[in-house]
Design goal:
482 residues; 9 strands
């Protein structure tokens, strides 16, 4: 079940920075209905173009493979005339502008030819169609996020679609001068994956194209968009076995935990109180039906350093997005083991940002899912759409502020043609916390849920009502890399 609301911010989208001009305010919802229909048509057209681009890429790979296969070489020895004609026809199909337009790829020779084409800035048909597909996605996203259609923002996106990196840099600089860094990044955040994919596809670097093609196909890229480094590199940057140590809460945390209950706003407030310097919390609840259940609260990323001694760092965030077996998941599993959670116990995991990613990574762990019954995973501002729990009965609830940059890092932006499973509950909204990182903060989520969108709060609380009861244990743990 997917449920969304499109409550738009007030005119100007929050207070303007002194000396800057506000981005034009969104139009009224009634006026947007024809535009939403147009956006759906744009997304549908982008799907067709993406399919055509991926088909052209596959055709180029198969044609290249056939042309340089040993079977073709053997036939060439037997029928040289036929082989020459076939080779010429294949070469024309691979290189002609009316064919695949330098579409060789796959295999040693095909990849060398593709790299040579990249360096020579030859744009094959597959790339041209992929670029058009991304351009249509960007246009569709501007319907829900009208700030993308402002002239300064459109200058950035148009330059990226054209492959003009210098103009894109100048346009981005102008946007930052106009709006400031945070608001400029927030403005382009709905299409950040499309822009990164365009960068990888249209630059001269031949080894970072996989990011773009996976994004086009709706997957979660396993490489970075700049250098093409595989996600496996992250396991060397984040190799810790994970460790969990019981600690006593400080007076402020203890006071907040003393008022905690089975309520989504309470859980978000607890996560905010835990901070992002390594703490996690295991709660034991004597439920109304007589069962004892457990709740694991996982905070998000510390942005102070690229890497620190806890799993809640930037390296861990990228690792959690691209892989499931991370230092954070290993530390969380040791927490459950050290706490003595009985085998077969019902477990609900609530996480913000990286904590939400880790919650889904834990739910995807077959060993953990067979040890405990992961009944619910609740994520706030987490890019989890490419992940799936090992137990299909696990109830996944994803809460998303559409102004938040982080949930879009899984490649599913507002104009993505891909969707989440029907049994998931996704509640998304636009609120007044426009600027990142404010829009990503736990407080922004709790303020929204206790405010105008209190019906979302009630909906989530109804879904987790099995955990209603008396809190009989709140134990914080300090998680370490090693």
């Amino acid at each position: 079940m997917i449920e969304k609301t499109d409550r738009l911010p007030p005119s100007g989208e929050g207070p303007d920075t002194a000396g800057t001009s506000p981005v034009p305010a969104p139009r009224a919802c009634a006026d947007q209905q024809p535009e939403r229909a147009e956006a759906e048509l744009l997304v549908a057209a982008s799907v067709l173009l993406a399919d055509a681009a991926l088909t052209a890429r596959q055709s180029g790979a198969e044609l290249t493979s056939a042309l340089f296969s040993w079977r073709f070489g053997l036939q060439a020895l037997r029928r040289p005339g036929w082989a020459l004609g076939t080779a010429v026809a294949c070469a024309q199909a691979l290189t002609s502008p009316s064919g695949l337009g330098f579409g060789a790829n796959g295999g040693l020779i095909g990849e060398v030819a593709r790299m040579a084409g990249n360096i020579a800035q030859r744009r094959p048909a597959k790339v041209a169609m992929a670029v058009d597909a991304f351009a249509l996605r960007i246009r569709a996203a501007a319907v829900e996020h009208p700030n993308l259609d402002s002239p300064p923002a459109r200058r950035v996106t148009d330059a990226m679609v054209a492959g003009n990196r210098l103009e894109a840099l100048l346009a981005m600089r102008a946007l930052i001068e106009l709006l400031g860094v945070t608001r400029a990044l927030t403005t382009i955040s709905p299409v950040i994956m499309e822009l990164l994919a365009l960068l990888g596809m249209l630059d001269e670097n031949p080894v970072n194209d996989d990011f773009s093609w996976v994004t086009l196909a709706g997957g979660v890229p396993a490489t970075d968009p700049f250098f093409g480094l595989p996600s496996s590199v992250l396991k060397f940057l984040n190799p810790g076995p994970g460790r969990a140590e019981r600690i006593e809460p400080d007076p402020i945390l203890a006071k907040i935990l003393a008022t905690s209950r089975n309520d989504i706003v309470s859980y978000v407030s607890d996560i905010g109180a835990l901070g992002n310097h390594g703490l996690a919390l295991l709660r034991r609840v004597a439920c109304a039906d007589g069962a004892v259940r457990h709740v694991l609260l996982l905070p998000g990323t510390s942005f102070g350093l690229l890497s620190n001694s806890t799993p809640q760092d930037l390296v861990g965030a990228f690792d959690g997005l691209l892989r499931t077996d991370t230092t954070y998941t290993r530390a969380a599993k040791k927490l459950l083991l050290r706490a003595g959670v009985p085998t077969g116990s019902d477990l609900m995991i609530v996480g913000h940002s990286l904590g939400g990613l880790t919650a889904m990574n834990l739910a995807a762990d077959v060993e953990l899912a067979s040890t405990y019954r992961v009944t619910h995973v609740i994520t706030l501002g987490s890019p989890i759409d490419g992940k799936r729990p090992a137990d299909h009965t696990t109830q996944v609830i994803s809460l998303v502020n559409k102004h938040d940059v982080i949930p879009m890092l899984d490649g599913r932006g507002p104009a993505s043609p891909n969707d989440i499973p029907d049994i998931w509950v996704e509640l998304a909204w636009l609120d007044e916390s426009y600027d990142y990182p404010l829009s990503h903060a736990p407080q922004a989520y709790s303020d929204t849920l206790r405010g105008e969108l209190t019906h979302y709060r009630e909906q989530v609380n109804k879904l987790i009502s099995a955990y209603d009861g008396e809190v009989v244990g709140n134990q914080p743990y300090m998680l370490r890399d090693k």
